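pinned: reference chain
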Amino acid sequence: MSDVVALISAARPDLDVRLAFLDLSAPSVEQVVDAIAAQGHTHAVVVPLLLGSAFHARIDLPALLATARTRHPHLHLTQADVLAPDHRLIAALRDRALEALASGDERSASGARLRRIARDAHDGVPLGGTEPIGIAVAAVGSSSEAANSRTGWVARQLAAATGWRTEICFATTEPSVTEAVSRLRARGAGRILVAPWFLAPGLLTDRLAAGAPGLTHARVIGSHPALADIVWNRYDAALAATLTLSA
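pinned: its structure tokens
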């Protein structure tokens, strides 16, 4: 995530960009808010580095910011929208899958070569081969059916963009990666890849890898160039809305 934030910061070096974590790691949201308040900032836009609007985005973060506003009444805090849905993230997921599907010299293929490979793979045939590609799109999983259904949207968009067969699976709920792989095989996929719908690796991607140890797992989205554009789009939209309301 530090690499991601470095990418975001480099796109607009005139702005103060800081990384905060909702839990498990430091610095926490509270620590970062306290620090910017102590340094005299009067407004901050908080962009959730989240791929869906589930509990963290709808409950955890708003509660943390509400408490922070009480501590720092002169600091205006604006929460921006989450990163997804966005077709640029689908393209990033496709790029990570293509990197994993490629082999030999193609592992270091340029962007143009990856786009050509994507065109070659549009009918679900990997890099000139004959086996249809199956992609298990793997996400965290949520107690919210609406949040889980959005992973289905991701898989459908990836299939539409590439011609690959796709199924969804989750690290914390059903269907599991094993179930997704079984469904892809039943649909005739000969080469199967797990594509994690995650920004960063961690315990849950490790769990997915353990659930399908014999398969290739693509890299997480990570510091893909599209991510900086999306974050700044969310920032600009939130800032514009705040200025409109205060006008």
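why pinned: Confidence is low (pLDDT under 50) at residues 104-108. Residues 96 and 136 are 13 Å apart (CA to CA).
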